[in-house]
Amino acid sequence: MDASDTPQSLRALFDAAEAKRQIVESSYDGSSPTYASELEAAISLYTKTHEAIATSSLFSPNEGIEDVSTSELPFLLTSFYIAELVQKTPRLQPQERIPVLRRARLAYDAFLNLVDAYGLVKSPTADAAAKRNGKIASFKAEKALKEKLSILKANPRYLENGDEELVRELYLTNTLFCVHTTFTSLDYLNRELSLLSLAPPAPPVATQTDPSRPPPEPFTLLGSGSRQELRRGVFRSGHNLPTMSIDEYLEEERRQGNILEGGTQPKTVVDEDDMDAVDRETYKARAWDDYTDDNRKGSGNTLNMG
Which GO terms describe its cellular component (predicted)? Predict the structure, then answer.
């Protein structure tokens, strides 16, 4: 598709997304609400750009990279930028970060599938020395690329009237560098997902209370009858008044069997007119006197006798 055929709405969406991404990447306070809103806005704009690209069939699997116009090459990085921004989502618990990383991985995969269709993907080498040399070369290429891109952004006429071959080379180099970055990011991303899958679930958040304040006391809802009782009891004495006499209380306790009776037998009153009873009591008293005469008090205790 020629540059003149690119929908203006797509170009406007991409430019707005790029501007938001620059704001996010230049922000140093990742915990501020402004950062979170700018990040969400950037992801939303890139997502709309991706949908517009799919709707307009900007890229076709039947064409090569040479068939893509220079002005359309930056659109190849739409899914890559989505993945990079999604990973910047702040203030996440371990279990909340897992779906974020999975979403980023899907965006990375979409980017690799797109550029692989144009033959721009080279599988990462397994040789350690080659990896190290590749990282050094990528770092140098990134530094030079950023300097050249800053020049292009500072002078838009350079993009229109400058050397198109140089501009195209810059875009393709940037795309290849993003491919290398994607493989590196996927490596770290998969490792983080493995660790997060082993993390225990977060404990429930307990409601914090002020230790200096006593806990609230339980209360009871009162009906109209209870209110009247409370009103009548305002001026009564502070202690409970007796409801029965002592004799009534003892009688009630005796009736319930709470008083033990027994011990010393009550003294028998002898009827003086009953001569037989008088004689029995007389003989009983004499027998007791004889017993006490024969058994002096304390005579049975032989333990303390000298």
Answer: cytosol
Q: CB–CB of 49/75 below 8 Å?
A: yes
Please state, in angstroms and rounded to a whole number, the distance separating the CA atoms of residues 207 and 191.
Answer: 34
pLDDT bin (cut points 50, 70, 90) of residue 31 is confident
Q: Which two tokens stand for residue 153?
A: 């952004």
Q: Hey, what are 217's tokens?
A: 């006391």
pLDDT digits (tens, 9 = 90+) for 180-212: 889 889 989 999 989 988 877 766 766 666 667
The verdict on domain 3-198 having CATH code 1.25.40.540 is yes
Residues 6+ apart with CB under 8 A from 202: 93, 94, 95
> Which stretches of 155-245 are DSSP H helices?
156-161, 164-198, 224-232
Query: Dihedral angle at the C-alpha atoms of 91, 93, 96, 98, nearest 10 degrees?
Result: 110
The percentage of residues in the chain with a pLDDT greater than 90, rounded to a whole number, is 25
Total-model pTM:
0.58
Rounded to the nearest 10 degrees, the angle between the axes of helix 78-86 and helix 33-56 is 150
- CA dihedral sign of residues 180, 184, 185, 187: positive
What is the pLDDT, as a whole number, of residue 285?
A: 79
Reported as a single tens digit per residue, the pLDDT across 84-95 is 999 998 877 888
